[in-house]
Amino acid sequence: MQCRFLGVLALTGLATADVVPTAPNIDVPFSITQYWGAYSPYYNAGNYTAPPEGCTVTQVNLLERHGARYPTSGAGPLIQASAEKLKGAQSFNGSQYGFLSNWTYQLGTDVLIPFGAAQSFDAGQVHYTRYASLVNSTTLPFVRASSSERVVETALNWSAGFAFASDKALPSPPPLSVTLDESRNDTLDNHMCPTAPTSQNQTAAWTNVFAPPIADRINNAAHGAHLNSTDIVNLLQLCPFETVAFEKPSNFCSIFTQDDFKGLEYYIDLDDFYSTGYGNPLGPVQGVGWVNELIARLTVQPVQDETQTNSTLDGSPKTFPLNRTFYADFTHDKTMIAIFSALGLFPQTENLSTSHPDAERTWFASRLVPFSAPMIVEKMDCDGTPSIRILVNDLVQPLTFCGARDGMCTVDNFVESQAYARTNGNGAWARCLG
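The structure corresponding to this sequence follows.
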């Protein structure tokens, strides 16, 4: 999806539009946006390529993260407190700290921001343009969202952009047909594995490696601030959050170096990897439910799952139809990480080190789950053979686990490769429940 600088609109519930809102490209020092991990604005990990000759897309399954948001209710107060510590320093050495005399914390909590709304609208336009042949006024995408406000608004903005790009070929946006309650069974939210370990130990270990030298440097320039390593992590996050919220580079960005942001990047990589990724023994199982729903759509067979699925919703053709050409699901980053891991994408031969980043790793959160990240599963007819390919942020995945060639895998081979999902996580789901 291509984002241009024209300004943005909040689009929640918009049915039609007279202008095209777009998420701006925001110029920040030394191109650090790709070091913001899961807080990075969407960017293409690869350029979309057409299906191979002889293959025609017959079905699309889109899984997309919500657009850019404010800090969560848990993180926001901690970030603000660290910033107030820095502002309260007795004196400063360096012009980059001058802005603090007039700075106040102005970020909201949890909800989608206008930049994030525009990202979703942009994505809808791109996906209509790419897959217009699969839809018409009576065959619309089937849209679901997890019930968090920012996820629901993302789905609505995407639908508005999808309809806008049709130039009135679609009289109205695809409706949000199902909202999955996050307090109940929900394949679009990872909340149903209370016994799963957290990533706290791993992120704390890395913080103790990369953050102390940064704290020493800033404390030497901000006399009396007494920042600790945790404060550094919080302050680094203010750069992306203020930048996307105000659509201009945050002054906090100028306090840090490119290497500092690489430290933040790895912090977020570790957080995802050890939360719902391969580093957590109960991480991938939290994505099994959605994978089994995907298998049902690809094979036009009822959902077979005993994990996160809502059997009532998935058992009804009204709330889980099997005859659609386009499915669009909207979710959170940690849930997408669990789904990637359940599928077998971005494999790591070893767990990520907590003392030094591996430059050759496949695991970069900014390439996996930036704000508004899409995963697309294209089902194709390839000279009579049902086949698939998977794209994450437009990059075709190799799918070596199902004997793929150039990222193409037959549907039968793909289903066979998903034994982990088809067995409800090889017993891991039972451990989620104690």
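Residues 1-20 have pLDDT under 50 and may be disordered.
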